[in-house]
Each structure stands twice: as C-alpha cells, then as structure tokens.
Design goal:
The chain is mainly alpha-helical. Helices cover 64% and strands 0% of the residues.
C-alpha cells in the first residue's frame, strides 16, 4: 500500500518586489501588493499590511492585473510563479 500526499504551499512562496518591478513595470506599491497576493493575502489584509485603504488596494490591484495581462488573483499568482520560476 502506498500513500501519496501532495501539498501546495503557495502561501509560503516569496517573490522579490524588485523582481516584480523589473518583470511587469510595477511601482513599489503595486509590487508589494502583488507580492502579498502571491502569499495568499486577501485584498483587505493586503491593504492593512500596506497601510492603505481597501479602495486604494483595489485600484492598485486593477493596475497589477493589467500590467501582468491577467483578470483574476488566481491568474496573477500563476503568472508570477511561472515567470519568476523560469
């Protein structure tokens, strides 16, 4: 008998803000937000961590999506992990 377990530790992924700025042309704030999203922070949590309002974080997130060419947080995480692990 074999027990096979798979785990996805996306929340433990660390991505450099400088790398994100270089790859996608993000500002420091946009890169920090993208970094937090990769670490599985919800937008409200990310806004608190960044010291901005939820509305501001949503505006940043729209720009982050646009610059990465994605339409959702899941697509953003997949794109960043693919681009930074290549």
């Amino acid at each position: 008998m074999v027990l096979l377990m798979a785990a996805n530790f996306v929340g433990e992924e660390t991505v450099s803000c400088d790398e994100l700025r270089h790859l996608y042309g993000y500002t420091k704030s946009e890169a920090r937000l993208a970094q937090l999203v990769v670490q599985e922070c919800e937008p409200r949590q990310a806004a608190r961590a960044m010291g901005v309002t939820y509305g501001t974080a949503r505006v940043y997130l729209k720009v982050v999506f646009e610059k990465a060419g994605v339409h959702s947080q899941a697509q953003l995480v997949a794109r960043i992990l693919r681009d930074t692990r290549s």
